[in-house]
Automatic annotation (TrEMBL), chain A:
Component of the cbb3-type cytochrome c oxidase. Keywords: Cell inner membrane, Cell membrane, Electron transport, Heme, Hydrogen ion transport, Ion transport, Iron, Membrane, Metal-binding, Oxidoreductase, Repeat, Respiratory chain, Transmembrane, Transmembrane helix, Transport. This is Cbb3-type cytochrome c oxidase subunit. It comes from Pelagibius litoralis. Belongs to the CcoP / FixP family. GO terms for molecular function: electron transfer activity; heme binding; iron ion binding; oxidoreductase activity. It is found in: Cell inner membrane. The lineage of its organism: Bacteria, Pseudomonadati, Pseudomonadota, Alphaproteobacteria, Rhodospirillales. Heme c 1 binds at residues 122, 125-126, 265. InterPro entries: CcoP_N, CcoP_N_sf, Cyt_c-like_dom, Cyt_c-like_dom_sf, Cyt_C_IC, Cyt_c_oxidase_cbb3_su3, Cytochrome_c_Oxidase_Subunit.
Automatic annotation (TrEMBL), chain B:
The chain crosses the membrane at residues 57-75, 109-130, 183-201, 213-233, 362-381. Residues 1-29 are annotated as: Disordered. Residues 20-29 have a biased composition (Basic and acidic residues). Keywords: 4Fe-4S, Electron transport, Iron, Iron-sulfur, Membrane, Metal-binding, Transmembrane, Transmembrane helix, Transport. The keyword Transmembrane helix applies. GO terms for molecular function: 4 iron, 4 sulfur cluster binding; metal ion binding. Residues 278-307 form the 4Fe-4S ferredoxin-type domain. Gene3D superfamilies: Alpha-helical ferredoxin, Immunoglobulins. This is Cytochrome c oxidase accessory protein CcoG.
Length: 291, 498
């Protein structure tokens, strides 16, 4: 290399010896500040290897002098968040649902906590906005099957509906068609009557509805009550309002009477801690239909 | 001064002379175009202290700018019980910017943008009128460098003494002078960084915390970083910041024209330069006595007699130096002066020099300043101290209730910029028969409370009978009314079934 050194006669600068079509590369020195920055980076890099975790080994890695770990940092951050929440969580633990709802500070905390717990655990069936779907109740409205006050909601979340928990909310509507309790014509008549309760039946079917009323009184009123308004204790839906869990068309009502419906909700006690369930109850109650 | 310089000459290697009653210097313009190489180590500049009108201006402006910088955070401004009493405060935790009677919320950051636009165009205007006065007098780099050089002079003496000290072997005196300079620089640097953090917190309280070593680490880090940069840029980098780091010398080339004031050496009058005997002015020589004083005082290390140069920050110190000499030798002043390139040509052509302040360029800049200023002032004066925002629920879009009526959910946010608690009544218009309900215990649409200088967020349900809805989307307007005066509205939509 040393032998190849040549000096460009125009600029008086040494060249690198590289030449392309007669154009030779000058070997100007690097700017000083650049050079020093480069050296500083080298020193920094070596120090980094020593101080921080850097090198992969066969089954682990070098841990570095200060023992930094992003996993530990995350754990610490989570721990700090828990600590920050703990004061509220303790108070929520000790308070009744009504007390929480009455205390703006606790209410705000519970709504935020309940909201995120809902997104993680409940939104799969009830939807992110809790608007539900066919067969999955809309929690925003004021129609409840098992009751919509704080205690009832809390109970439902705790033990579920037709879940495997001993204290689950449980009922069973007969499958009037499948089990041949009623004939097709009778089911059709009852359906017409049920639809007429919420004024959604057709005037042409008034005669059928009148026939269905007798069958309703005989077969259905034990749970759905004489007036069709249902009962929270029995989990019997109100048939007179504008809200239909499985749809308000005649085919859907006939299907419900023929084959029965039995939606299922898991019990959350044991899966979620008590404070979380409390917050969930508060959140669901706040969605707009709480009683 | 003169005698001293002569006395120093023999043993310093600084050739200073006393010729024709004029102090002479062999100062070299180290940043002269011909001598400056990109790969060369910086040659230290020893600017000589000078007396004169421009030097006086620089002292005044230095005192003014440093005074503003150091004292502003300590000015108090009473805003009542619910707000800080610091006149200028950037409150990051509280997300507010306080500037005397103005209080800016984060979403109003466009006022700061406007202020920056004004500052930029103002700089353009000043530059097109009077050249780089920003660089020469008010730029922090110039002010602090000037301060650092003044400190240097106190400890080490003027130019000749400093050169001699640098060449002298290390001894007690040299150590004392050099160390004293550094200590003073560090103290200034720490004070500079220290003043900065007071803009971001209550100054007296932070001062106490800082001295007790109980202030937040970020304040010490900030002070440290700024102290370091001040020390480095003011003490050592100096003119290199302007020449190599700062984009402004390049930008301002596009803002100047031949009618802008720049520091000009009147070459026609001065050349050919040459030394002469006292009180004689030979015909074959111009007015320049070649004393080199203009070079000796230049903090940028250039020779103004070479013409316009990127390095020149137009501080006017060479004018002071030259005028002093001109007075002494009995020649007219202003051989070096603030003039325009056009005037140089005019004088050459035998015309009268004149100053053209009103030019298309300056008119455009002034017009822009007025325009932006008026827009800002208007928006500031008409700025509402009350704001309402309505976020409609998008999931679910609407909810059907048992009785068939339709309900929509809204998040209502009220911003109260007054320093008192306010209570509002919420109304909805455009939806006959609509009922409003607020989520939360004991809260009604009749009385929504918003704390002083605060934002309150409420969940509100609006419910109407389905029969009242004409369409799947109805335009509605929310209105909040303060019982004690003041109201505002915002529009939204009420959704229903198809």
């Amino acid at each position: 290399m040393a032998d190849n050194k040549e000096v460009d006669h125009v600029s008086g600068v040494e060249t690198t010896g590289h030449e392309w079509d007669g154009i030779r590369e000058l070997n100007n020195p690097l700017p000083r500040w650049w050079l020093w920055t480069f050296y500083a980076c080298c020193i920094w890099a070596v120090a980094y290897w020593v101080v921080m975790p850097a090198w992969p080994l066969i089954s682990s890695h070098t841990t570095g002098m200060i023992g930094y770990s992003s996993r530990a940092q995350l754990a610490k951050t989570v721990e700090q968040a828990r600590e920050a929440q703990s004061a509220y969580l303790t108070r929520i633990d000790a308070a009744s649902l009504e007390e929480i709802a009455g205390d703006q500070e606790l209410l705000d905390f519970a709504l935020a906590g309940g909201g995120s717990a809902f997104a993680v655990n409940c939104s799969q069936c009830h939807g992110r906005g809790a608007a539900g779907y066919v067969g999955y109740p809309n929690l925003n409205d004021d129609d409840w099957i098992w009751g919509g006050d704080l205690a009832a909601i809390d109970q439902t979340i705790h033990f579920g509906i037709r879940s495997d928990h001993d204290e689950t909310r449980l009922n069973e509507m007969p499958a009037y068609g499948r089990d041949e309790i009623l004939t097709r014509e009778e089911i059709d008549d009852v359906a017409e009557y049920v639809l007429s309760l919420s004024a959604s039946g057709s005037a042409a079917a008034a005669a059928a509805a009148a026939r269905g009323q007798e069958i309703f009184a005989e077969q259905c009123s034990a749970c759905h009550m004489e007036d069709g308004k249902g009962d929270y204790e029995l989990g019997a839906p109100n048939l007179t309002d504008a809200i239909w869990l499985y749809g308000g068309e005649k085919t859907a009502v006939v299907e419900s009477i023929t084959n029965s419906r039995a939606g299922m909700m898991p019990a959350w006690t044991g899966r979620l801690d008590e404070t979380t369930i409390k917050q969930l109850a508060i959140y669901v109650h706040s969605l707009g239909g709480g009683e | 001064m003169v005698e001293q310089a002569v006395a120093e000459a023999p043993d310093t290697g600084v050739k200073s002379g006393h010729h024709g009653g004029v102090e002479r210097s062999d100062a070299e313009a180290v940043n002269k175009k011909e001598t400056r190489s990109l790969y060369q180590k910086r040659i230290k500049i020893y600017p000589k202290m000078v007396k004169g009108a421009f030097r006086r201006w620089k002292w005044v402006i230095m005192a003014l700018t440093l005074g503003v910088y150091y004292l502003t955070p300590w000015i108090r401004w009473d805003r009542g019980a619910n707000a800080p009493d610091q006149a200028v405060l950037i409150d990051f935790p509280g997300r507010r910017f306080y500037f005397f009677f103005i209080e800016i919320w984060p979403q109003e950051v466009y006022y700061l943008t406007g202020l920056l636009i004004l500052a930029a165009i103002g700089l353009f205007l000043i530059t097109s009128l009077a050249g780089r006065v920003w660089c020469g007098y008010t730029c922090p780099q110039t002010v602090w460098t000037d301060l650092f050089i003044a400190v240097e002079k106190i400890f080490q003496g003027d130019r000749a003494a400093r050169i001699r000290l640098d060449k002298a072997p290390w001894g007690a005196t040299k150590i004392f002078r050099k160390a004293g300079t550094q200590v003073a620089w560090v103290i200034i640097a720490i004070c500079t960084g220290g003043a900065w953090v007071f803009y971001f917190a209550d100054a007296p309280a932070l001062m106490g915390d800082l001295l007790a070593f109980q202030a937040p680490p970020v304040s010490y880090i900030t002070i440290g970083v700024l102290a370091f940069t001040t020390y480095l840029l003011g003490g050592f980098a100096r003119e290199q910041v302007c020449t190599y780091m700062c984009p402004w010398p390049r930008i301002q080339g596009g803002l100047l024209d031949e009618e802008s004031l720049v520091i000009t050496y009147n070459e026609d009058r001065g050349e050919p330069r040459g030394a002469r005997k006292k009180d004689t002015h030979p015909d074959n020589l111009g007015d320049c006595v070649a004393c080199n004083q203009c070079v000796a005082v230049c903090p940028m290390g250039i020779d103004i007699r070479d013409g316009q140069q990127l390095e020149c920050i137009t501080c006017g110190l060479c004018i002071d130096a030259c005028n002093t000499v001109m007075d002494k030798v009995g020649l007219p002043r202003n051989l070096i002066e603030y003039s325009t390139l056009a005037n140089v040509e005019r004088v050459r052509a035998g015309e009268k020099p004149r100053l053209r302040l009103i030019r298309p360029r300056t008119l455009v800049y002034s017009g822009l300043i007025v325009l932006v200023g008026v827009i800002m002032l208007f928006s500031l004066i008409t700025r509402a101290d009350l704001d309402l925002s309505i976020l409609r629920d998008r999931n679910p879009l609407f909810v059907t209730l048992s009785d068939g009526s339709i309900r929509n959910g809204y998040t209502v946010k009220i911003i109260n910029k007054q320093h008192r608690e306010r209570t509002f009544r919420l109304e909805i218009e455009g939806l006959p028969g609509a009922a409003l309900a607020v989520v939360g215990s004991g809260v009604t649409a009749e009385a929504l409370v918003v704390g002083p200088d605060n934002l309150a967020s409420y969940r509100v349900f609006a419910t109407v009978p389905q029969a009242a809805l004409q369409d799947s989307a109805t335009d509605v307007r929310f209105r909040i009314v303060d019982r004690e005066g003041g109201e505002t509205t915002n529009n939204s939509v009420f959704r229903g079934p198809q």
